[in-house]
Amino acid sequence: MPLEKPAIIPQANPKAGYLAQKTEIEAAIHRVLESGWYILGREVQEFEQEFAAYVGMPYAVGVASGTDALELALRGCKVGRGDLVFTVSHTAVATVSAIERCGATPILIDIDPETYTISPHRLEQTVQKFFQNPKFAQRLKAIIPVHLYGHPADLPAIMSIAGKYGMVVIEDCAQAHGARLENRMVGSWGDLGAFSFYPTKNLGCLGDGGLVVCKDPELAARMRALREYGWQERYISSFPGINSRLDELQAAILRVKLSKLEDNNQRRREIAHTFDQTLATTAIHAPAVAADVIHAYHLFVVRCEQRDRLRQALLSQGIGTAIHYPFAVHSQPAFRHRVLTGVGGMENTDKICREILSLPLYPELGDDEILRIVRALARWK
Ligand SMILES: Cc1ncc(COP(=O)(O)O)c(C=O)c1O
Asked: 173 C-alpha to center of ligand 1: Å?
């Protein structure tokens, strides 16, 4: 009798996260259903307070997605048409589309080749170049560092550049809930932090959701109004806004999941450590961790010159992988030939796109599955 092939280990598994807290999640859903209040109620308020306290920021505003969180953060800071916003090309398209949605112009900067986050050196060179042009000197408004894969960007350097040129810093924390730099949470370094709760994230809901944290009460009030038609008083729009509300069901689910986020991140780090040890004996490049960083390991992204062959070899052993992201934003059809890029080009960004591969990594991975992944990696030649 032929042996049955083991099931594929998926690269991400949001259902496992639901099953791990099934009873509490279903109780939370039931509580909301019975409450009869489904939009912007007690659950959203409580979750906003709990999440703000977790990050260490005074205010939080729940919105409908991570993309909206970035857009409302920018609009809240009055960034609009003709303004320049500096970010990376090596990110989810959402970071760049949020900038364009509020009418501003994104300038895409190359990344550091080790941490895959914005290069402060290239950022400063590019900001300087635009600052020297009288047409743009007054238009430098914001920097959006992306803590990609769960590794914090070089925030001290970025904050210093922003301070020098009077720009706000909006941290894109969509992939980094709970990551820390110098013992301080991401999201609490900049003026604002934007989070996504897409189901596969370290803190994910069962649908779409997002949130912005900030320090300034007036800014928080403006974003609260912006998420609901610009209402400061019900049915009276003080300024143009949109509909982007975190709903009660998702907030109730997020409250349950927040209680386990620290444990889950710790489990992610333990699995990452096991992978690191195996990779040290192979030709596959493990992800770097900068000094004073606590990585959130949203993704475990390796680099390999023969990436496609490695991907196929893992798949043939029942291990699913993904590529985050196969094409940087500046080379995608919607942006190619029109989006502005920074000084020094996109050398590091373009190189890593051809080599990166995300292995399965989530807290519910079983020890037997981890062993299968480790053995397959050790076999790679
Ligand atoms: C880095 C980054 N920024 C922004 C977003 C947008 O989040 P959402 O999908 O919730 O709109 C995502 C998620 O896909 C992301 O990974």
From this structure: 9
Q: What's the N-to-C CA distance of the chain in angstroms?
A: 31
Ligand 1 within 6 A of CB of 95: yes
CA distance 208 to 251: 11
Asked if 86 contacts 109 with a C-beta cutoff of 8 angstroms, the reply is yes
β-bridge pairing 300-303 and 84-88: unpaired
Domain 1-381 has CATH 3.40.640.10: yes
Rounded to the nearest angstrom, the distance between the alpha carbon of 73 and the centre of ligand 1 is 14
> Is 248 within 8 Å of 105 (Cβ atoms)?
no
Q: Locate the domains of the chain by residue range.
A: 1-381
Distance CA 24, CA 83 (A): 45
The pLDDT of residue 1 is 57
pLDDT tens across 27-62, in order?
999 999 999 999 999 999 999 999 999 999 999 999
- Closest to 299 measured CA to CA, from 188, 96, 88, 147: 147
